[in-house]
Amino acid sequence: MARRYVMDFERPLFELEGKLAELRKLDVSNNPELAAEIENLAAELERLHESTYRNLDPWDRVQISRHPMRPKTEHYLEALFTEVVEVHGDRAFGDDEAIFTGLATLDGRRVAVLGHNKGTDTKSNVARNFGSPHPEGYRKAMRVMRMADKFGLPIVTFLDTAGAYPGIEDEERGQALAIAESLALLSAVRVPVVVVGIGEGGSGGALAIGFGDRMIMLENAYYSVISPEMCSNILYKDPAQARTAASCLKMVGSDLMELGIVDEVVPEPLGGAHQDPAAVFAAVGSVVGRALDELSGIDPEEMVAARYRRLRAIGAYGP
Amino acid sequence: MPLADWFSARENRRYTRLDETPQAPASADVAEGVWVKCDNCKHTLYEGELADNMWVCRHCGRHFELTAPQRVELLTDEGSFVEVDAELTSADPLEFVAAKPYAASLDSAKAKSGLNEAVITGRAEIGGRQVVFGAMDFRFIGASMGSVVGEKITRAFELATAERLPIVLVTASGGARMQEGMLSLMQMAKTSAAAQRHADAGLAYIAVLTDPTYGGVTASFAVLADVMVAEPGARIGFAGPLLVEQTIRQKLPRGFQTAESMLKHGMVDEVVPRGALKDHLETLLGYLQSRTVAGGVR
Predict the structure, then answer these.
(1) Which of A64, A147, A159, B216 fits A197 for a cystine, CB–CB 3.0-4.6 Å?
(2) A244 is in which domain, residue-wise?
(3) Whose CA is closest to A185, among B220, B263, B152, B42?
(4) Are residues B277 and B168 in the same domain?
């Protein structure tokens, strides 16, 4: 895969790689010392490669979650689903391309799919507002939730947004109301809801389609009440503390499993999902398929009751 | 809750009364505790007079921030409020340490407000009608919603649902409480789910949105009411104005995110001055009585 985007923590690795590539261009046939040096560097590079990608902290994972080459909702749709029928529009204002909604089939299972829909290039990113939905996006999602409830289709959602868009018109058209109503509806739909965090899980904008009966997250996805950058500004009064904030906020899958919010973390290839998308699609497909099968026989009313019990148990307080 | 706990919880309350001087509202410059300068019209006001006028500036009508106990005084029948769940306090599940450690923020908020958390909830009567009543208190870490606020709001909805009562909530909040991370964010889903169950039971919910109500509280239970009323001038929104301004790189229109602008855009039902709020609630509660027919339109 073309390497045109380097994340901060990868920089030393890429510098060494570049240096080695330069050296390899030299003729070493008469220079055994240089040949040995090159061998040493190659070994060092391998070690650095391992240590870089095996010791990622949450802030590094946030970088990976935002990587432009990271697979997006549309790629999961393409790789995992057949007979995809997109559903457009909120029937009131417009069609928000920042959220994909539709009907699709996963290995013979008919489901409704909702997903934040980041673009893959500048043009699609502009059309999709970089995956930050407007109120009509959530209202479209609600329309499909009702459809899923009416026809008994399980719901699969893909989370990948920096957050709901904070624009003037969004406020005036009721961004907060759209999210709140989506939360209330999602809590009450009488079908299984399987949530997959594939990239960014930015606050209320992610949560509006982001809780259910199974919570799955990719290893380098995050889910957080606030971005590490904003948290750093507000609580640390220092924009340079994003790395610390990312750790403190407990926003990656392994932390969220400990907090009882996430059920399963899907491992990614070394370096991130973009290094081997096919492997990630296969893993996600099987985890989601298994979750849907496990939830399939449950009585609809019991499904809603269990979802409520699950939400009810989240929180830490005394005495 | 055992009865003994309930009594001790009551005794532990340290409420201020409406006619008493609250600890400096964040929005007012208090000089020597006697004179207050209105931050809107800049008039200097005698504090006692301001208290007599329910903390509304007599010159410009600016509604100063009220504490949760003051909301109880203002909106419920005298002596009718009986608090529940007063004993719940926040843990520090993430052991969050920033410029100020979360544990220290909680301690100073408790000392400053005399409350255990940013919301008080309980049974009350409004115009002789039984309700579940809750009010948020901005002095307590900006009335942000963490586990305890989410739990108390959820329990309030559950109590109202179990006893088939209407619920009245007075909101004020800076949003979700960052120091509890995802546990805070999930309270949005939890409270919304509880509000939905209350609604499904055919029971009334009235929200009173006060200055300021933002973020995770606005984007969850605060706006799921049958009727939403707002105090004049209250700032209500999803994203804070600074974030909106930085995102769009434009100056914000005048009156952006105020109660009046929310009314104009169809997001609240009425803007009601503080002095008329209780009557307004009484009238509404008269109309919004639960019926005995099951089911309904969705």
Answers:
(1) A159
(2) 62-312
(3) B220
(4) yes
* Mutation site for A-interface testing, chosen from B182, B197, B252 by largest number of A Cβ within 10 Å: B182
Residue A112 forms part of a structural domain: yes
User: How many CB atoms lie under 10 A from the CB of residue B271?
Assistant: 18
A220, A296: one domain? yes
Cα–Cα distance for residue pair A96/A85, rounded to 1 Å = 16
- Average pLDDT (A90-105) is 98
Q: Which of residues 195-224 of A touch B (CB under 8 A)?
A: 203-204, 207-208, 211, 223-224
3-state secondary structure of B125: strand
Quote the number of domains for chain B. Answer: 2
> In this complex, is the C-beta atom of A179 within 8 Å of any C-beta atom belonging to chain B?
yes
Cβ contact A163:A131 at 8 Å: no
pLDDT at residue B298, rounded to an integer: 59
B134 within a domain of the structure (yes/no): yes
Section B117-125 average pLDDT: 98
CA dihedral A20, A25, A28, A29 (to 10 degrees): 140
Across chain A, mean pLDDT equals: 95
One domain for residues A283 and A138: yes
Distance of alpha carbon A106 from alpha carbon A109, whole angstroms? 5
Residue of B nearest to A167 (CA): B244
A174 touches chain B (CB under 8 A): yes
Q: Is residue B293 part of a domain?
A: no
CB-based contact (8 Å) between A165 and chain B?
Answer: yes
Q: What angle is formed at CA A168 by the lines to CA A162 and CA A170, rounded to 5 degrees?
A: 60
Q: Which residue in the set B178, B189, B199 is minimally distant from A231, CB to CB?
A: B178
**Cα–chain-centroid distance for residue A2?**
22
Residue B31: give the domain boundaries: 27-64
Same domain for A242 and A173: yes
CB contacts under 8 A, A 91-130 vs B, are: none
B98/A164 Cβ within 8 A: no
Residues A251 and A301 in one domain: yes
B-chain CB neighbours of A185 within 8 Å are 196
Query: Quick one: closest CA in A to B267, which residue?
Result: A174
Where residue B180 sits, what CATH number does that domain have?
3.90.226.10
Contact state of B147 with A315 under an 8 Å Cβ cutoff = yes
Q: What is the mean pLDDT of residues A182-200?
A: 98
- Residue B99's pLDDT band (cuts 50, 70, 90): confident
Structure tokens at A76: 């999961």
Please report the pLDDT score of residue B292 as a whole number: 72
Is A319 among the domain residues?
no
ipTM of the assembly?
Answer: 0.95
